[in-house]
Design a protein that fits this description.
24% helix, alpha+beta, Thiol Ester Dehydrase, Chain A, 4 helices, 6 strands, disordered N terminus
């Protein structure tokens, strides 16, 4: 099973809350692409670090970054702050890819193994729960060999604002087909 394949349909947890499965309709995918493009157009941090978009969709994204010499700490391994920045960026993009302005409430990251200069890191992020005001996102950072580098768990707050206006969504609002 691939990393992003775990949540396929709406389910109910023990508390009776609907778990997020994600709308993968054509309209929702197009809105997600527009949301991510809009966020990326003003993302100076990602530009500066060479973070690239590998794939995306409603409530999910894969970003990548190559570990440069300037990212190394005193031990000649990638400073955890750069790994966190990659994971946090993926968290933000996935949380807002359903046309909602979402901001982080908290994050927890576990570093599993070090990354070295020249490694290509991939941050696979998916929303695992999307409520009306809050959501949960899981980000798994792996290297070019598929080895896990870190895992970030984040909770976000939905500000109740659309990221895109009606002209930018094609009239489809928050991911509904137009």
């Amino acid at each position: 099973m691939e990393y992003g394949d775990r949540v396929k349909s709406n389910t109910t947890d023990k508390a009776g809350q609907a778990a997020y499965a994600g709308d993968q309709s054509k309209g929702a995918v197009e809105v997600a692409e527009r949301c991510i493009a809009k966020m990326r157009s003003n993302d100076r941090v990602s530009d500066g670090l060479g973070i690239a978009i590998e794939s995306s969709g409603p409530g999910r994204i894969v970003l990548s970054m190559t570990v440069a010499e300037a990212m190394l700490n005193a031990y000649d391994i990638c400073h955890g702050g750069y790994i966190f920045t990659l994971a946090d960026t993926a968290f933000a993009y996935a949380a807002s890819a359903r046309n909602n302005v979402a901001v982080g409430l908290n994050c927890h990251i576990d570093y599993v193994r070090p990354a070295k200069q020249g490694d290509r890191l991939y941050a696979h992020s998916e929303v695992t729960y999307a409520g009306k005001t809050t959501g949960v996102t899981l980000v798994r950072v792996i290297d070019q060999e598929g080895r896990q580098i870190a895992e970030l768990h984040g909770r976000y707050y939905n500000l109740g604002q659309a990221l895109l206006d009606e002209n930018e969504t094609g009239g489809g609002g928050r991911g509904e087909p137009s």
